[in-house]
Amino acid sequence: MKYLKQFGIILFISFIGEILNHLIPLPVPASIYGIVILFLCLELKVIKLDDVKDTGKFLIEIMPVMFIPAAAGVIDVWSIIKPSCFEYVAILIISTIAVMAVSGLMTQFVVRLTGKSSLTSDNKHKQTNNTQTSNNGGKKHG
To answer: Rounded CA gap, 35 and 60, in Å?
Structure first.
């Protein structure tokens, strides 16, 4: 019963995203509206993480299965895609490299940003320990 409740919450939010997609004249997919609404509801504590966590994990685990219909659709339109296949592959490679580069740079930035604050506190702790050690004739007190 827990999974039905959690899935119902996710479907309800997805439905609200679909409604917003029809009401707001922007080229934004309904799923993006739904993700933003779910994020806001979680951040504002309207929905608790435990209310959707288990079903969310399940949906992430089966995500590869969700791509099967899209792959079958590509096979259906292969005659249209075939003449431009080189361009699609080139775009795929370039965009993959770009996403990897941006993701890596952002990860490094966040690690450095968060790492500096923790390193600073670690260094202060080490300096405090070193001062205590030198003041006590090389003996540490734990």
So the answer is: 14
Express each pLDDT in 6-65 by its tens digit.
Answer: 999 999 999 999 999 999 999 999 999 999 999 999 999 999 999 999 999 999 999 999
5 CB-near residues (< 8 Å, 6+ apart): 51
Q: Looking at residue 139, what DSSP letter applies?
A: -
Residue 69 CA neighbour count, 13 Å, CB half: 2
Q: How far apart are the first and last CA of the chain?
A: 52
Give this prediction's pTM.
Answer: 0.56
Q: What is the rounded distance in angstroms from the CA atom of residue 118 to the CA atom of residue 114?
A: 7
Tokens (6 digits) for 30? 């309904």
In the block, which residue shows the tokens 């205590």? Answer: 132
CB 20 within 8 Å of CB 30: yes
| Three-state SS at 24 | coil
Q: How far apart are CA 15 and CA 31, in angstroms?
A: 9
What is the DSSP track for 51-90? Answer: GTHHHHHHHHHTHHHHTHHHHHHHHHTHHHHGGGHHHHHH
